[in-house]
């Protein structure tokens, strides 16, 4: 299979170019995916602005929806067909280490955002390319959604992993701090899991959106005392689970004030800048508080996220802030880094 393809390449800080390179051909157990849409995550925004350090040139893009264009002769054709709509994920784990072999691909010992994936001219996750070579174990079928929606299945999978890490149960009170896309997805999924969700953010418009996704109460900490309001809403018990979806170090301390005895704190977001946070270990010990971290997702999370979106359980249309052809990726990135968008989508 001959031909060329377009790839959006970060060449330096705040520099991105559309380059032409060889279109890969699938053989063996590889599949050629035509990328239909890829979302710009905060991670790529930080590459663009220089916060995330990478070696240039670098190809970003890890929230990917496409369809199968061709398959190698060893691909299981009982499971896969040309034309199948798929999301691509879990491409960076090694699938060989202890963590991968125990079903924790999200915590792979060798997880590398700058891996050099087959068929690409440069290092990186590769979704900002017209085509990708993918192993079948990194593809998940979807239906009943446009590619611009389906590429957001990857964030859904990460939130599925987060919510299940916390084991949110029927009747729990859950506090979600932050109303970015990840906070709002936590709100929607925890609600569907049978929890009473309280959401905190300083953006009134996004608090209103949280209500439409099932939040039973919202708090603006710029106008109300967060701890006091959570106590009032829970009869003094506070929240069984607190999700911090913000990158702000000082907000971590707020979680300590709002979690119940025997409760769980989940640090979902990476913290920027990464600063130490003080806490009282005797309080953690005496109140049986669990502090957890979660990042990324695994095959099981991805499969269930794709099923939820395909089945209409989660509607991702409200999270599409803008759609841009690949040639306008710089405009999409400049728009995204303003901080008022959910997801800008690149199409090929």
From TrEMBL:
<dbReference type="Pfam" id="PF00107">
    <property type="entry name" value="ADH_zinc_N"/>
</dbReference>
<dbReference type="InterPro" id="IPR036291">
    <property type="entry name" value="NAD(P)-bd_dom_sf"/>
</dbReference>
<dbReference type="GO" id="GO:0003939">
    <property type="term" value="F:L-iditol 2-dehydrogenase (NAD+) activity"/>
</dbReference>
<dbReference type="InterPro" id="IPR011032">
    <property type="entry name" value="GroES-like_sf"/>
</dbReference>
<keyword id="KW-0862">Zinc</keyword>
<dbReference type="Pfam" id="PF08240">
    <property type="entry name" value="ADH_N"/>
</dbReference>
<comment type="similarity">
    <text>Belongs to the zinc-containing alcohol dehydrogenase family.</text>
</comment>
<dbReference type="InterPro" id="IPR002328">
    <property type="entry name" value="ADH_Zn_CS"/>
</dbReference>
<dbReference type="InterPro" id="IPR050129">
    <property type="entry name" value="Zn_alcohol_dh"/>
</dbReference>
<dbReference type="InterPro" id="IPR020843">
    <property type="entry name" value="ER"/>
</dbReference>
<dbReference type="InterPro" id="IPR013149">
    <property type="entry name" value="ADH-like_C"/>
</dbReference>
<protein>
    <submittedName>
        <fullName>Sorbitol dehydrogenase</fullName>
        <ecNumber>1.1.1.14</ecNumber>
    </submittedName>
</protein>
<keyword id="KW-0560">Oxidoreductase</keyword>
<dbReference type="InterPro" id="IPR013154">
    <property type="entry name" value="ADH-like_N"/>
</dbReference>
<dbReference type="GO" id="GO:0008270">
    <property type="term" value="F:zinc ion binding"/>
</dbReference>
<keyword id="KW-0479">Metal-binding</keyword>
<feature type="domain" description="Enoyl reductase (ER)">
    <location>
        <begin position="11"/>
        <end position="346"/>
    </location>
</feature>
């Amino acid at each position: 299979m001959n031909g060329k393809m377009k790839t959006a390449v970060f060449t330096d800080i705040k520099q991105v170019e559309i380059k032409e390179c060889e279109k890969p051909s699938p053989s063996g157990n590889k599949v050629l995916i035509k990328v239909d849409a890829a979302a710009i995550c905060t991670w790529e925004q930080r590459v663009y602005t220089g916060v995330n350090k990478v070696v240039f040139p670098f190809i970003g893009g890890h929230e990917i929806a496409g369809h199968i264009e061709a398959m190698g002769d060893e691909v299981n054709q009982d499971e896969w067909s040309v034309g199948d709509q798929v999301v691509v994920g879990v491409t960076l784990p090694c699938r060989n280490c202890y963590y991968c072999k125990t079903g924790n691909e999200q915590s792979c010992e060798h997880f590398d955002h700058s891996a050099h994936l087959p068929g690409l001219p440069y290092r990186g996750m590769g979704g900002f390319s017209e085509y990708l070579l993918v192993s079948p174990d990194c593809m998940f079928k979807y239906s009943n959604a446009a590619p611009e929606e389906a590429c957001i299945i990857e964030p859904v999978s990460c939130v599925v992993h987060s919510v299940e890490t916390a084991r949110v149960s029927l009747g729990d009170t859950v506090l979600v701090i932050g109303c970015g896309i990840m906070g709002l997805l936590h709100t929607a999924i925890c609600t569907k899991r049978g929890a009473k969700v309280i959401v905190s953010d300083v953006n009134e418009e996004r608090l209103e959106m949280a209500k439409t996704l099932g939040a039973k109460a919202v708090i603006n900490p710029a106008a109300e005392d967060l701890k006091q309001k959570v106590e009032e809403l829970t009869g003094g018990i506070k929240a069984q689970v607190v999700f911090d979806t913000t990158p702000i170090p000082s907000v971590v301390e707020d979680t300590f004030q709002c979690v119940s005895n025997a409760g769980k704190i989940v640090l979902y977001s990476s913290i920027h800048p990464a600063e130490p946070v003080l806490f009282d270990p005797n309080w953690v010990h005496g109140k049986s508080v669990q502090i957890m971290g979660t990042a990324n997702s695994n095959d099981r999370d991805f499969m269930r996220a794709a099923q939820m979106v395909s089945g209409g359980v989660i509607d991702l249309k409200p999270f599409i802030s803008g759609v841009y052809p690949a040639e306008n990726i710089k405009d999409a990135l400049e728009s995204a880094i303003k901080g008022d968008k959910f997801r800008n989508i690149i199409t090929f």
